[in-house]
Amino acid sequence: MKPTTIAALALASLVTVGPSFAAESTVPNTTRETAAPAKKPSSLALPHHVTGSVMSVNRNAHMFTLKAADGSTLTLNADPAVARQLADLKKGERVKVTYKNSKGQQVATNVTPA
Fold first, then answer.
1. Where are the domains of the chain?
2. For 10-48, b where at least 16 C-beta lie within 10 A, e where not — what string?
3. 69 phi and psi, to 5 degrees?
């Protein structure tokens, strides 16, 4: 085959397959009013500690974003115990958070004022 034929076939396959990738939605499902809190992580998961300022709180999704002292940003899911505390968590508040990595998520297991 000629190089131009190979290039044309490759382009045709990309044009055919490309829309299937674009069809996948990355928009979160907002049909539910509230999401369930994250499941309690395994007791074998190692705890991590971070202190920082609350940037945002999403009570419906049981999540909050924290800007750590080193400048990094963490989006944490709340376990059932911490989910109850989200009503009192305010933007700008300094907190110390204990969290565990569980199934690809960072799950907050304890939040205390710093």
1. 47-113
2. eeeeeeeeeeeeeeeeeeeeeeeeeeebbeebeeeeeee
3. -60, -30
Token pair, residue 57, equals 């709180």
26-72 pLDDT per residue, tens: 444 444 456 778 777 777 789 999 999 999 999 999 999 999 999 99
Q: How far apart are CA 22 and CA 13, in angstroms?
A: 15
Class at the top of the CATH hierarchy for domain 47-113: mainly beta
pTM above 0.70, yes or no: no
Q: What are phi and psi of 32, to 5 degrees?
A: -85, 145
Q: How far apart are CA 32 and CA 5, in angstroms?
A: 50
DSSP 15-45: HHHHHHHHTS--S---SSS-PPPPPPPPTTS
Residue 69, token pair as written in the block? 């002292």
**Of the candidates 94, 40, 91, 38, which has an alpha carbon nearest to the alpha carbon of residue 61?**
38
Which residue, 97, 34, 42, 31, is CA-closest to 64?
Answer: 97
